[in-house]
Amino acid sequence: MDFREIRHFHVCCGIGGGVKGFNRGGARVGNMVAAPRCIGGVDVDPVALASLEMVTGTKGTLLDLFDRGQYVAFHGQEPPAGWREATGEDFRRAAGGERPHVVFMSTPCKGNSGLISTKTSEAPKYVALNELALRAVFLTMEAWADDPPEILLFENVPRIAQRSRRLLDRIGGMLRAYGYAIAETAHDCGEIGGLAQSRKRFLMVARHIAKVPPFLYEPPKRPLRSVGEVLERLPLPGDQLGGPMHRVPRLQMKTWIRLAFVEAGSDWRSLNKLNVANGVLTDYGLVPEHPLRGGALGVCQWGEATGTVAGESLPSNGKFTVADVRTFSACHNGILGVNAWGDTPGTVTGNARPMTGSFSVADPRMRQGHADYQQYGVRRWGQSTGSVINVKAPGQGGFSIADPRYGDKPRFANVYRVVSTREAAPTISAGQGPTSGGLAVADPRCSWNPRAHTSKLRVIGYDQTSLTITGSSSSSHGFTSGALAVADPRPEAFRDGRESYVTGGHYGVLNMRDTAGAVTGSGQHDNGRWSVADPRPATGDEAEELPAPNQQLVAVIRAMDGTWHRPFTTLELAALQSLVDFDRPGLELAGASDSLWREHIGNMVPPDAAQAMMGVIARTLLLAWAGESFLLSSDPIWVQPVTVALAVDTSCQLPTPQAAE
After folding, report:
1. 10 Å Cβ neighbour count for 98?
2. Is the pLDDT of residue 640 over 50?
3. Which CATH code fits 2-230+605-660?
């Protein structure tokens, strides 16, 4: 086999999710096999670089990518003594003097995140942070200007396509000047990596036209997995096998109670359904899992062994009640019992009545059309009647008729009747209302104008013009005075600037079988759907007494659906990001802060998604190195949405993506 090394370099590499995935990616064309190798990465966070080496074995380089103006705008002060701007030479040294075939960059995305408003994103601090994308591409091109990398990938949040449109245009222009064909696209890392989360990202793909004639295809999409598929492969939270990152956060007791009452698959809005009076939950109580007062009012299961029979074995002082699975008739001598037609009845007694035993029968002959059992029967109008016998009442047989003629000549034709103005009124009687006869008239005359009373209780559309504001809009007249109401499409909570709170899924609890959202750097139980309804039984003893509402603890409360609603552990978030190797469930990162670990995990590119990207990149590079310029594939092309890539003659002018389309 001919192993071809594919060198990749990472800008803003973080803890190395992309590095780990690229190293695992591979492809084969003929006897050529791809062998990816990371030659380095740069980042400004020393703790993240320490984690990079622990996760991937690659040693990164600490490098600040800001120019002086961006540094001042972001930090609000001049840089310290000895600080200098990064150059292309710094990139070459970080790569060990080697030239990469693939460069992957995922620059900071906070300025383009939907978690901050557009106005906030325009602050100088976030503008400088966003401009790191342009500077990262510039330094990459300057570092290897004489021999540019074959493939460049730039990843960020989808909102960058709107908030930083001018910045992307400048990046695209720069890449085209260096001979690249580019495409802006969006993908779901969960779909291309087969993850248990939906993580939509923006991706700019650049292919050097002269070096790589074959088109670069998109990775195939795979169905999203459920959260439970991932979590069930890990030990329960708190197990020592999971290490320090697999501990459940200590929350206040009242927060645990809130999570327990959130419906799985919903968020904090489930709490609005609860009845609370003076701060007390009126419909539910919370008791320890251990038996209360020795099992008072306890009910034993039918197959369960009972406790010791005491001298006063009553339901109120112990578990002396049973869930009896035997039929009702067997327990109560068949009171109101009904025998099946094919069953044998019990002994006929002198008081054989329904209330004293099973003295009723399910007679199937009623359904067979026997007229003898048609008490209160009503005949259809077109049906023949049975024999006319000497009966006195409908209860003795089918001697009633469904007469259709009632509608032709109603007996009470004047009840609620409205008389036309062209019609003579009926006799005026002593009745005083419409129910007494035809005492209403259809008056075609308007009161004073064609629009009389047409605006009462009217609601104006949000995009319509209001009617004239009159003096009768006081509270004494209310909405009946005219069009004094509007259909406001804005939710009430949005009006006080809390839009992000309403839509953020706070205290959200996922079903174990659901797919999670994108793992973010600030994933906490109270700012998104970062809790799960875990059906697995928890280990350890529960408290005998209920803790105080503000007491910090790890609690196991059985929720209404019978599961444990708890926050994700840091290790579980890493597993959803595909960073965990399940043959070694423990994960070690630099530092000792859960919040920092979560930030680094949320910011990284999922390794499984990066592996899928490297797979198609490696295939394209191997084709180019084999001299092939034609590939037939059913996968979409990253550069343009067509299914079949046409052969490209490298001696001719290659078309731009727009012209090819």
Report:
1. 14
2. no
3. 3.40.50.150
